[in-house]
Amino acid sequence: MKLSGEQRRVYIHNGPEDQGGHLYVYVGLNGRSFRIPRMKEVNLPVEVVEILKNAITTEVIQKRDRRTGEVETVFNDIMRFPFEDRGPVIKEPEKEEPPPKEKAAKAA
To answer: Which residues contact 70 (CB under 8 A, 6 or more apart)?
Structure first.
Protein backbone atom coordinates (compact mmCIF):
# COMPACT_ATOMS: atom_id res chain seq x y z
CA MET A 1 0.00 0.00 0.00
CA LYS A 2 1.41 3.33 -1.02
CA LEU A 3 0.82 6.35 1.20
CA SER A 4 -1.59 8.90 -0.26
CA GLY A 5 0.61 11.89 0.59
CA GLU A 6 -2.23 13.52 2.51
CA GLN A 7 -1.28 14.51 6.07
CA ARG A 8 -3.02 15.59 9.29
CA ARG A 9 -1.80 17.57 12.30
CA VAL A 10 -1.98 15.35 15.40
CA TYR A 11 -1.28 15.85 19.12
CA ILE A 12 -0.95 12.67 21.22
CA HIS A 13 -1.70 13.13 24.92
CA ASN A 14 -0.09 11.29 27.79
CA GLY A 15 -2.16 8.33 28.90
CA PRO A 16 -2.15 5.99 31.91
CA GLU A 17 0.45 3.76 30.22
CA ASP A 18 2.90 6.68 30.24
CA GLN A 19 3.75 6.10 33.87
CA GLY A 20 6.47 3.79 32.56
CA GLY A 21 8.11 6.69 30.74
CA HIS A 22 6.88 6.07 27.20
CA LEU A 23 7.71 9.26 25.36
CA TYR A 24 6.74 7.93 21.94
CA VAL A 25 4.00 5.93 20.28
CA TYR A 26 5.29 3.34 17.84
CA VAL A 27 3.12 2.53 14.83
CA GLY A 28 3.87 0.13 12.00
CA LEU A 29 2.31 0.27 8.55
CA ASN A 30 3.28 -2.22 5.83
CA GLY A 31 6.83 -2.64 7.04
CA ARG A 32 7.35 1.03 7.70
CA SER A 33 7.75 2.25 11.31
CA PHE A 34 6.71 5.58 12.79
CA ARG A 35 8.01 6.85 16.13
CA ILE A 36 5.55 9.56 17.12
CA PRO A 37 6.43 11.89 20.03
CA ARG A 38 3.80 12.60 22.67
CA MET A 39 2.84 16.08 23.88
CA LYS A 40 3.94 17.68 20.61
CA GLU A 41 1.97 18.52 17.45
CA VAL A 42 3.25 16.49 14.50
CA ASN A 43 2.25 15.94 10.89
CA LEU A 44 1.29 12.34 10.10
CA PRO A 45 0.06 10.52 7.00
CA VAL A 46 -3.71 10.00 7.10
CA GLU A 47 -3.11 6.24 7.03
CA VAL A 48 -1.19 6.42 10.33
CA VAL A 49 -3.92 8.61 11.88
CA GLU A 50 -6.43 5.90 10.90
CA ILE A 51 -4.33 3.33 12.80
CA LEU A 52 -4.41 5.56 15.89
CA LYS A 53 -8.20 5.90 15.59
CA ASN A 54 -8.59 2.13 15.43
CA ALA A 55 -6.28 1.45 18.40
CA ILE A 56 -9.00 0.75 20.96
CA THR A 57 -8.77 -1.12 24.24
CA THR A 58 -11.66 -2.29 26.40
CA GLU A 59 -11.78 -1.41 30.07
CA VAL A 60 -13.86 -3.78 32.21
CA ILE A 61 -15.44 -2.36 35.35
CA GLN A 62 -17.50 -4.35 37.82
CA LYS A 63 -19.85 -2.48 40.12
CA ARG A 64 -21.89 -3.89 42.98
CA ASP A 65 -25.33 -2.39 43.49
CA ARG A 66 -25.54 -1.39 47.16
CA ARG A 67 -29.26 -2.05 47.39
CA THR A 68 -29.54 -5.41 45.66
CA GLY A 69 -25.97 -6.72 45.95
CA GLU A 70 -25.98 -7.63 42.24
CA VAL A 71 -22.76 -7.20 40.30
CA GLU A 72 -22.97 -5.23 37.08
CA THR A 73 -20.21 -5.52 34.51
CA VAL A 74 -19.58 -2.49 32.29
CA PHE A 75 -17.37 -2.56 29.20
CA ASN A 76 -15.89 0.77 28.09
CA ASP A 77 -14.03 1.11 24.81
CA ILE A 78 -11.30 3.72 25.16
CA MET A 79 -8.60 5.05 22.87
CA ARG A 80 -5.30 3.27 23.40
CA PHE A 81 -3.45 6.47 22.51
CA PRO A 82 -5.65 9.50 23.29
CA PHE A 83 -4.99 12.12 20.61
CA GLU A 84 -6.40 15.20 18.94
CA ASP A 85 -6.77 15.44 15.19
CA ARG A 86 -6.10 19.13 14.62
CA GLY A 87 -6.94 19.14 10.94
CA PRO A 88 -5.22 18.78 7.60
CA VAL A 89 -1.74 20.01 6.90
CA ILE A 90 -2.15 23.01 4.65
CA LYS A 91 0.75 23.41 2.32
CA GLU A 92 1.54 26.94 1.36
CA PRO A 93 1.62 27.46 -2.38
CA GLU A 94 5.09 27.66 -3.74
CA LYS A 95 6.14 31.19 -4.51
CA GLU A 96 6.90 31.81 -8.11
CA GLU A 97 10.25 33.35 -8.69
CA PRO A 98 10.12 36.64 -10.52
CA PRO A 99 11.38 36.50 -14.08
CA PRO A 100 15.05 37.36 -14.40
CA LYS A 101 15.67 41.02 -15.03
CA GLU A 102 16.86 41.69 -18.53
CA LYS A 103 20.04 43.62 -18.81
CA ALA A 104 19.35 47.07 -20.02
CA ALA A 105 20.80 47.66 -23.43
CA LYS A 106 23.72 49.95 -23.22
CA ALA A 107 23.17 53.14 -25.06
CA ALA A 108 25.95 53.74 -27.49
So the answer is: 64
Give me the average pLDDT of each 10-residue run along the chain (108 residues): 89 72 87 94 96 94 92 93 94 74 55
d(CA 21, CA 42): 20
Note the pLDDT of residue 87.
94
d(CA 22, CA 82): 14
Task: Mention every residue, 6+ apart, whose C-beta is less than 8 A from residue 106.
Answer: none
pLDDT at residue 47, as a whole number: 96
Give the H or E element holding residue 47. helix 46-54
Please state, in angstroms and rounded to a whole number, the distance separating the CA atoms of residues 44 and 66. Answer: 48
Contact 19, 43 (CB under 8 A): no
DSSP label at residue 10: E
Q: How far apart are CA 50 and CA 5, in angstroms?
A: 14
